[in-house]
Structures are given as structure tokens and as C-alpha cells.
Design goal:
Blueprint lengths: L8 H21 L3 H21 L5 H10 L1 H11 L3 H5 L1 H22 L2 H19 L17 H14 L2
Helix pairs in contact: 1-2, 1-6, 1-7, 1-8, 2-3, 2-7, 7-8
Length: 165
């Protein structure tokens, strides 16, 4: 069974950032402040579900622990913050999140068992789906719009490819 100890600090940081990277990519695909609130909450909900369902002796459990430990959570918040340059250039921030996700996938595929890798990558994709479905896109005060925008569908496809699913 693969544990956190099997990864370097940098690899584990990228794995720990992966849920936020996936969610962030979806949020940025068709950004709206109102929608971003619901979409961000959906990421938190997926992390809370993971914390409740993952066993502590699994790779998924180790990831959940990163988000339930307040000290680790503070470090993760700092690690996922965009730099000044990235905050001015959404394309650069997207590229960084995608790069972090690719690094996480490489580490997962290289060190986790195939079953653990698939389980984690499918869960990461589910974070993206939940984020995309958290708010209607293009609506006005709840009227009209669609659940998942074409931009979100495109980024979900990109995430799926990156995850190797």
C-alpha cells in the first residue's frame, strides 16, 4: 500500500494541491464571482466527503489528512495562491495549475499501485465534475443558463486527458 512517505515533499505537495488545481481549472474556465462561490464550496464538500470515507491507512486517507490538519491546510493555502504575475495573467495561472496536476499524476502513476492510482485520479476528476455542476452558467438570478458551460466541458476533457482516464 502506498503512503505519503513514498513520495518526495515536492511530489506530495503537488498531490495535495491536485484537488484545488482541478477545481481551480474548472472555476477559471468560465469565471463568474457568484458561481465561483458555489464552485469553491463544492470543492470543500468533496474534500469533507473524502475525509469521512477514506481510511487513514490509504493514499486517499493521507490526502484527506492534509486537508483536515489545520497546520497543513495553512501551508496548502499558501502553496495554491497565485503569484503576483499569475494573478494578473489567468493563462499563466491556468498553466501553473495544469503543470502541478501533471506533476501530481506523474508521481501517482510512478509510485502508487495501479488500483490506488486509478482510484485517486477518478476521485480528482469527480472534484472537477462537482465543481462544474455546482452552479448554472449564463443564468440571470437563477433563470436560464446551463449546468455546465462549453468552456467547463472543454477543461473537464483536458483534465481527464491529463489524469489519463
Amino acid at each position: 500500500m502506498t503512503t505519503k512517505a513514498d513520495f518526495t515533499n515536492e511530489e506530495w505537495l503537488n498531490i495535495s494541491k491536485a484537488p484545488m488545481s482541478v477545481g481551480g481549472l474548472v472555476i477559471m474556465a468560465s469565471f463568474s464571482v457568484g458561481d465561483a462561490i458555489f464552485e469553491t464550496m463544492s470543492i470543500g464538500k468533496k474534500l469533507a466527503e473524502l475525509a469521512q470515507s477514506a481510511g487513514s491507512d490509504t493514499l486517499m486517507g493521507a490526502l484527506a489528512a492534509e486537508y483536515t490538519d489545520k497546520e497543513n491546510s495553512k501551508e496548502l493555502k499558501e502553496a495554491i495562491k497565485p503569484s503576483k504575475e499569475e494573478s494578473r495573467d489567468p493563462a499563466a495561472f491556468k498553466a501553473k495549475m495544469l503543470g502541478d496536476l501533471k506533476s501530481a499524476v506523474a508521481a501517482i502513476d510512478g509510485k502508487a499501485s495501479p488500483e490506488e492510482a486509478t482510484q485517486l485520479k477518478e476521485w480528482l476528476y469527480s472534484v472537477g465534475e462537482a465543481t462544474a455542476n455546482a452552479a448554472k452558467e449564463g443564468d440571470f438570478m437563477g433563470i436560464g443558463g446551463q449546468r455546465v458551460s462549453p468552456e467547463e466541458e472543454a477543461v473537464l476533457a483536458e483534465i481527464k486527458t491529463t489524469l489519463g482516464l
